[in-house]
Amino acid sequence: MSIQFLNGPHGRIAYDRLAGRGPTLVWFGGFASDMSGTKATFLADYARESGRPCLRFDYSGHGASDGRFEDGSISDWTADALAAIGALSQGPLILIGSSMGAWIACLVALKIPERLAGAVFIAPAPDFTEELIWKNLNDHDRTRLERDGQIIEPSPYGGMTVITMKLIEDGRRNLLLGGPIAIDCPVRILHGMADADIPWRHALRFAERLTTRDLELVLVKGGDHRLSSRQDLERLASAVANLAKSNSSEASPRH
User: Would you call 45 helix, strand, or coil by DSSP?
Assistant: First the structure.
């Protein structure tokens, strides 16, 4: 990976970009994740081998980008994504978002619907700040969060995770599940039924809200939140290839 930097709305945005033909594959990472993760790296390798353009980047406060993680929010990270896409891609896009990245990809899609060739959502977590964090906090932790502005919790993936009141409040300004989600491009959703972080029924609720008529939902029995096994990655490649090949701009060069 050759990391480059773009001046974004919250400092420098780290990115990696590949040229190719057809719609640009855009990777949206999850909460506290970065573009060096297993699925992001697999997607870049797939794009390189298949000659497709690909863009991946780190939100502010993530990975190699500027900023502190605890200063960020859904709106901030959406703005970072829009800045990267606007400066570093042209033509049709296939958005690929994992967990929180699926929420941010949706918010981006609603801003630039004319550029959408498709979307792949892996363990999608729209509205997770409200539905899966705030609603599951006990009274003591809610009081601490409101009083101190943040709480620090152990992460199931190692280390500690900072949850801020800013993240919760900003999340409420970006909620999607309360009504139709006007995304009309082809959508593929992959979700593990053993996901301990985002229940698979959350994906069903999300799928029901999307307005597209071209939607396929794959539930992987025994699949965890990361969906990073060899079989899971093959499913991801198949979903992306299906959307890319069905796009009429396949033969056009993109950079």
Answer: helix
Buried b (16+ CB within 10 A) or exposed e, 138-175: eeeeeebbeeeeebeeeeeeeeeebbbbbbbebbeebe
- The identity of residue 69, as a single letter, is F
Q: Which CATH class is domain 4-126+183-254?
A: alpha beta
Residue 245: CB atoms within 10 A of its CB come to 9
Cα separation, 51 vs 20, whole angstroms: 5
The two tokens of residue 82 are: 């829009």
Give the mean model confidence (pLDDT) for residues 106-122: 98
Q: In whole angstroms, what is the distance from residue 44 CA to residue 102 CA?
A: 18
- The SS3 assignment for 74 reads helix
155 confidence band (pLDDT: 50, 70, 90): confident
d(CA 19, CA 54): 7
Least confident of 51-60, 95-104, 238-247: 238-247
Give the tens place of pLDDT for each residue, 23-50. 999 999 999 999 999 999 999 999 999 9
DSSP state of 129: I
| DSSP string for 170-217 | HHHTT--TTS-B---S-EEEEEETT-SSS-HHHHHHHHHHB--S-EEE
Structure tokens at 145: 């969060």
